[in-house]
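Ex. 9. Protein: Glutamine synthetase III.
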Amino acid sequence: MSEKENKNYNFEEAFGKSCFTDYQLQNRLPKSCYKALLAVGSGEKPLDLQTADVIATAMKDWALENGATHFSHWFHPLTGSTAEKHEAFIVPQKDGTVISEFSGKELIMGEPDASSFPNGGLRNTFEARGYTAWDTSSPAFLKKNSANSLVLCIPTVFVSYTGEALDKKAPLLRSMAVVSKQAVRVLQAIGEKAVSHVDSTVGAEQEYFLVSRELFNNRPDLRLTGRTMIGSMPAKGQELEDHYFGSIAEKVSAFMAELNEELWDLGVAVRTQHNEVAPNQFELAPIFSSSNLATDQNQITMETLKRVAERNDLVCLLHEKPYAGVNGSGKHNNWSLSTNTGVNLLDPGKNAEDNRRFLLFVAAVLKAVDKYAALLRLTASSAGNDHRLGANEAPPAIISVFLGKEMEQSLADFAGGKSQVAQSQNVIDVGSPFVPDLPKDNTDRNRTSPFAFTGNKFEFRMVGSAMSIADPNIVLNTAVAEILAEFADVLEKSPDVNKTIQELVAKVYSDHKRVIFNGNGYADEWQEEAAKRGLPNLKNTPAVLPTLLSSPVTELFEKHEILSKEELHSRYEIRLETYNKLLNIEALILEEMANTGVIPAGQKQLASDVKSICRQEKLGLNVAQQKNRIGTVNDLLEEIIELSCRLNTVRRESEAMSDDLQRQAEFVYNKMIPLMEDLREQIDGLEHLCDRRTWPYPSYEELLFTL
Ligand code: ADP
Ligand code: MG
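Predicted structure tokens for Glutamine synthetase III:
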């Protein structure tokens, strides 16, 4: 991107250009058709095939005008990434020519050959029918897979022949409808009659690492698992904290400029970008939108990050913990509820009435988070994220809510029956006449909290950087809907609504105060304190996954028709299987790197050291220290050989347990991972003592400090 081009960047014209937005629909569809589509969105009417035909043709014309050749139903299978199958717009004619065509039927329904997507036993492979169905609430977009391949992607849900959800979008859409319904009930009951719809809104901050492609290609661990399995820390890590918010290097800046333009073009409103704490780590954040759109756009963002990096001879690492010893990457899921009348329900009000409503919704969130803490924790669990949670760089595995002193005081006052709630919006005096006074936020920042109130939304900070944000939002929407339903049941019958609100908030505050924690979540004392309070502390994926089968979770999801018991069970199996398979791959790679790279390098080192020392000894030189050093190298080498043999045995043992996935996962966690860590420690020790020029893999120093 030349400087000149950049200066002329025209947001109004360029934003969403590759997106079939509402604007396009309005301009390209006959009025009656557009209206019919709106009616579909509001649930009044299903889409008829004739209307679908008209929309499909309009979409195809637009796509062809922009250079697309194919269309694809784009969906979110349970792998956590997205899937697409391209089909060209061509239809052959009798005379040997072709015409371009895209029918309504093709728009609204697809049938990918779905037997190879994970289904956790929901579909027998012999009847592996899966259907994709158009999600009219998320705009179709043009995806550039390479310079000359442009595909019209149609966001879809993915369901089985018998209607079970095989993806993450179907339950997300259901959860949005449920939270809307219950929030509307509450609002209607407290007199807000104009509200007919409530949207759950999400802004997902995304962290990532960049690494030079050449170095990446020389690391089999990075290539195959996205994280380094070995590598000793360089003299400098992140301790100086000089990377965070530091000025952005030119190469990265060029990458970001290209990335932004691609994302803007796709209608993703990325706004913030900066360096993160670890070297070569960065973050971006879009402007929030409805949770379905935010989820789609986060997937698009992850794909675009990878693609644009590739083009710049870089690789974007989305793994939660690419490097030991420096911070990993997460995703902050900012969440709120917003009415069709434009009110953010988690924004503290300016008058007593607004405040009452605000505190009622905060209470609903508090109770939901406490009651379904394990479930929420589960949505952030994966093999990758296990390296982060609880490791003094990310929130601990304990779910707690940060409200901030002032907010908690307001809640306590209101619960205690004080009608005048503390509402001081203080001003920070900077102490210089040249700098205007700053309004002080109602909450201070607490980076150590997994679930923090940040002024007008809650921020769930546990989510892993590589994960889809669908799961956390399905849970947030559904759990909050459940509590709002309880509230609505009471409020609808209440003769004195204001009094009932106060009673509801008071009850939540006294029953669920235990989940509020404003202190340092990284401190050891918090672990003890949380245990005393009875808060769950589920430290790893095998420990947390059975939550999916627990009765409170099954009841919650079945009651609100988000997921059935069978669907939950299938998700449980898929996640266990993914965990086990992934760790099996990691162990294999570690073994292989030890055997084919590390051990030969150590042996070479030893051989050349022995040769050189023998020569020196012959000359009568003192070589006592060198002999010590050789001894250490030899010991490490022996240890590495032994540990990698043991790892091989243990890995085979774990493989043999595949008929009991839970037992296998626990075995992997308790027996195999500690062995892998031990092996790594010895290898890293050896790396320190080996000739840099012959060590077979790029070092941490190169990976972290060059691009
Ligand atoms: P910080 O780094 O301080 O957490 P950022 O500005 O990087 O702040 O990110 C905040 C995110 O929260 C943005 O994506 C923003 O759009 C989002 N956000 C703001 N208001 C809401 C809201 N009402 N609902 C959901 N997300 C919101
Ligand atoms: Mg944040």
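Check your answer against this statement. The CA atoms of residues 369 and 625 lie 59 Å apart.
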